[in-house]
Amino acid sequence: RPAAAAPAAKAQRTVLFMGDSLSAGYGLAAPQGWVALTAQRIAQSKPGWRAVNASISGETTAGGAARIAGELQRNRPAVVVIELGSNDGLRGLPLAQSRANLERMIQAAQAAKAQVLLIGMRMPPNLGREYTEGFERNYRELAQKYSAPLLPFLLEPVAADRNNFQNDNLHPTAAAQPALRDHVWSKLGPMLK
Q1: Is residue 112 domain-resident?
Q2: N or C of the chain: less Cβ packing under 10 Å?
Q3: H helices within 77-189, ranges in order?
Q4: CA 2 to chain centre
Q5: Residues β-bridged to residue 95
């Protein structure tokens, strides 16, 4: 009898998504966002894994850093996907502050024995070259420092075409979400062993 129970005893492993509106599916029906689509793919192709989306629209790196300990405790993830920074950038918050918050999140996740996938963003050029380059550099340097896989730019597959975005020109449409799912999966899929 115990032998039959063994697979159930091996608790599901969790992928925790900590993101902002881009991951929370802003302006979309719940099943349409790339994280929901990723959760579907995990359910279909990675038995023993599940996805938890703890993303919040409007979230900053400070919010993520403040919430990560509770989310780690609640969900005990094996993998943490961090997609934060856009709202810091759009508000022009100091780069050092954003970097310190992201670093706190990576450290907390790794201390909890979770692997981290860091998803970077790019800022519009109107913030100035120094800011936009520093913004991108934060992700690169943190990924290197903590040996974490990095997806440099979440919106890379859809960014060039205005038609991929909702009227606010910030949030991708439902039709663009599968491309984001596939883009993230290129890094996330191999982590779900």
Answers
A1: yes
A2: N
A3: 86-90, 95-111, 129-145, 177-188
A4: 38
A5: none
Domain that holds residue 75: 10-191
15 part of a folded domain: yes
Catalytic (active site) residue 45? no
The 8-class DSSP code of residue 164 comes to G
Overall number of domains in the chain = 1
Report if residue 5 sits inside a domain: no
Q: Is 21 a catalytic residue?
A: yes
Q: Note whether residue 38 is domain-resident.
A: yes
Q: What is the mean pLDDT of each run of 10 residues along the chain (193 residues)?
A: 47 94 97 98 96 98 98 98 97 96 98 98 92 97 98 97 96 98 98 95
Annotated catalytic residue within 55, 98, 171, 183: 171
Has 20 been annotated as catalytic? no
The predicted pLDDT at position 179 comes to: 98
| Domain CATH for 79 | 3.40.50.1110
